[in-house]
Amino acid sequence: MDDGKKKERWQRIEAQLAGLMARTADPIARMATVAALLYHKLDYFFWCGFYRLVDGELLVGPYQGPLACAKLEKSKGVCWAGINGKESIVVPDVHKFPGHIACDSRSQSEIVVPVFNKEKKIVGVLDVDSDKLDTFSATDQEYLERIVALIFS
Asked: For the whole model, what pTM was predicted?
């Protein structure tokens, strides 16, 4: 898909999610809605969900796709790198990422976007995996960051 069509698709998804977010202020319900909609609208999303920072641990939150790791080993893998760096991370090949945690061996590429609450404190990450290499673009990152910002808006 060319970048122009991809942006148009993302704009439609963002608008749809903004409307759905207006129905509840609960962040867990919003996370569940985001994960479900993205997983079912974007065929290159193999796994899509949230890991929540709870008492210093990253625990699986709402997600769609194959079975997930319930808890991620402290300061290891892409999700913790996103938490510790407080920034999005695009990984074209997860097998080349130091300390990658393979919850599913079919995962080939990944994008992680931090989730910040209203006080700008990091509370988790949106984690998206693809079963193909080099899947995620700067456009995906831009719109995922915008969508994640809706959770606590």
From this structure: 0.95
